[in-house]
């Protein structure tokens, strides 16, 4: 049975459809274009698009673009790309909250005419004082007494650009003693003389999030407006606007717990700080928690969707282990990624008894279980193996090459280490080995060779760069720092290891950006989409073969 378990939102949507309350489910994903999408957004995307898909409805993509100062076209483009990459398609055109600025403005005037909104000139400090606290009621602004006509005139002049930023706001007149602070005459319009990426300089007053969101939902016929728990106590305000305005329908807001992932941050503000201060190379630095970073690192959309399904949807906050995400990508890549060999720290091996000039083209399966063909590896007298696969004083249980010992070369012969050539500092620079010609595809006579190591041909292998990533933060909760300095204190200085002079098997010369590989014994890798060139391939390690964190 592949039917996913019915989390509470699935149950609500199903009940609404079964009862005929809604004939068609309409959801939306409403990002603010003030940064790149992160793994937390993936949870919301999978939930909103997933529910629409599952129940034969539709999901809108709507940019929540009411704050022109922080928003940019670059972010809009990145968000569109990320949603499509995750495998979802929005219904109809891309929408913007700013598409509704005319309607929202007209509704603000309706509220003024109904005596339910007023222009207030308290300074921010005064407004804070009048607002009261959680335990004390607020008090009415003196501007609450303004007449409808004066309010209409003031709002018209705000809109016409007569006043500087921050001097006046339009507030809904609700209840300054409401226990829910959001109902204490919330701001619905503010003055902001700023260029907007969609509406240019048409407006110098912009609606607040609260005044925009529910009404945009209503305009679009959203049935289930799903957001994270921090909006729970905005819901009475969401409902208040819908009840006090002539909106075409009454959407309902539901909240779920946001995704928190350990060893990382999922806040656009913090991610932007990492970029702006140069702690990472950009929003798509493969160590970031953004979707563009996961894409560049080699994560598949399917693995992220699977992760979002596995973590479930609840109303209680928790922290998900990064290991769960890694499990999902490992599982996917183990099943699908072709195998290849790449030697990260090469030392040359000369097989002294192998005839000079002879080459055998060995065919190795691309995958141990999938029938996806073979690749060719030329075997001859000189090969590379990894420096870590030869030790003079091996620890107990070491199954690789030791002086006088034998090991199997993956898909090839058994070799024995006869002699090590060292440099002045005593480092092994070359091994001289002999091979047993009777061991291709069969066990040697009369002895057991346990170890199998990877290798590449010296002449035909290609030089490449390999980037190994570790977690960007050393603490499970990066926001909690011992020194009180914040999340930047917990940056892992060893989160990126760049290896140059690595040697990849020749079949990798034709790798494309969409390919993903298991480099045997080293992990899963893909080409880096930014820095890799045909002459200088750069491979990113997506994830290790096993969960070795903390070992
Ligand atoms: P940030 O704090 O990173 O700026 P945000 O909530 O302000 O996040 P939005 O662009 O407003 O970012 O988010 C779009 C949608 O994605 C919202 O519905 C929001 O609730 C949801 N979302 C954001 N972060 C998470 C998260 N960590 N887990 C689940 N959903 C999230
Ligand atoms: Mg938001
Ligand atoms: Mg935000």
UniProtKB/TrEMBL annotation:
Domain tRNA synthetases class I (E and Q) anti-codon binding: 452-528
Reaction catalyzed: tRNA(Gln) + L-glutamine + ATP = L-glutaminyl-tRNA(Gln) + AMP + diphosphate
GO molecular function: ATP binding; glutamine-tRNA ligase activity
Compartment(s) of residence: Cytoplasm
Family affiliation: Belongs to the class-I aminoacyl-tRNA synthetase family.
Stored HAMAP family: Gln_tRNA_synth
Protein name: Glutamine--tRNA ligase
UniProt source species: Halopseudomonas salegens
Name of the encoding gene: glnS
């Amino acid at each position: 049975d592949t039917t996913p378990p019915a989390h509470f939102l699935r149950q609500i949507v199903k009940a609404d459809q079964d009862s005929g309350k809604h004939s068609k489910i309409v959801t939306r994903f409403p990002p603010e274009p003030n940064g790149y999408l992160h793994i937390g957004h993936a949870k919301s995307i999978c939930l909103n698009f997933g529910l629409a898909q599952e129940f034969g409805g539709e999901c809108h993509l709507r940019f929540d673009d009411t704050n022109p100062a922080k928003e940019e076209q670059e972010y809009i483009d990145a968000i569109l790309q990320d949603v499509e990459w995750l495998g979802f398609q929005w219904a109809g055109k891309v929408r913007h909250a700013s598409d509704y600025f005319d309607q929202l403005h007209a509704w603000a005037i309706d509220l003024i005419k109904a005596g339910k909104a007023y222009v207030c000139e308290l300074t921010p400090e005064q407004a804070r004082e009048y607002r009261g606290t959680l335990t004390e009621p607020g008090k009415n602004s003196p501007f609450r007494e303004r007449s409808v006509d004066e309010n209409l005139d003031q709002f018209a002049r705000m809109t016409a650009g007569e006043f500087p930023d921050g001097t006046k706001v339009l507030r809904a007149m609700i209840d300054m003693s409401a226990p829910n602070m959001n109902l204490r005459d919330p701001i619905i319009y503010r003055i902001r003389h700023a260029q907007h990426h969609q509406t240019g300089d048409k407006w110098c007053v912009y609606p607040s999030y609260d005044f925009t969101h529910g009404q945009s939902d209503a305009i679009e016929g959203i049935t289930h407006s799903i957001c994270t728990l921090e909006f729970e106590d905005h819901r009475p305000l969401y409902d208040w606007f819908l009840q006090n305005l002539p909106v075409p329908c009454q959407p309902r807001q539901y909240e779920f717990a946001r995704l928190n992932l350990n060893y990382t941050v999922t806040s656009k503000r913090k991610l932007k700080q990492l970029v702006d201060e140069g702690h990472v190379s950009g929003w798509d630095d493969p160590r970031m928690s953004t979707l563009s970073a996961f894409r560049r690192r080699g994560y598949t959309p399917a693995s992220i969707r699977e992760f979002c399904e596995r973590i479930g949807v609840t109303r209680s906050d928790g922290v998900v282990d990064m290991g769960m995400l890694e499990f999902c990508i490992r599982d996917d890549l183990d099943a699908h990624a072709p195998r290849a060999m790449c030697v990260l720290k090469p030392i040359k091996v000369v097989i002294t008894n192998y005839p000079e000039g002879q080459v055998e083209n060995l065919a190795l399966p691309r995958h141990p279980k999938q029938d996806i063909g073979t690749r060719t590896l030329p075997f001859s007298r000189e090969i590379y193996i990894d420096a870590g696969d030869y030790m003079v004083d091996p620890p107990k249980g070491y199954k690789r090459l030791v002086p006088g010992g034998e090991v199997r070369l993956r898909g090839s012969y058994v070799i024995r280490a006869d002699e090590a050539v060292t440099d002045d500092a005593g480092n092994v620079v070359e091994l001289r080995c002999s091979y047993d010609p009777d061991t291709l595809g069969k066990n040697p006579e009369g002895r057991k060779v346990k170890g199998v190591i990877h290798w590449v041909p010296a002449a035909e292998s290609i030089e490449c760069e390999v980037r190994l990533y570790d977690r960007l933060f050393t603490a499970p909760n990066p926001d909690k720092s011992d020194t009180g300095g914040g999340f930047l204190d917990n940056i892992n200085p060893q989160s990126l290891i760049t290896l140059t002079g690595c040697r990849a098997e020749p079949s990798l010369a034709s790798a494309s950006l969409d390919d993903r590989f298991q480099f045997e014994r080293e992990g899963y890798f893909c080409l880096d989409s930014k820095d890799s060139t045909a002459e200088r391939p750069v491979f990113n390690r997506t994830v290790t073969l096993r969960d070795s964190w903390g070992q």
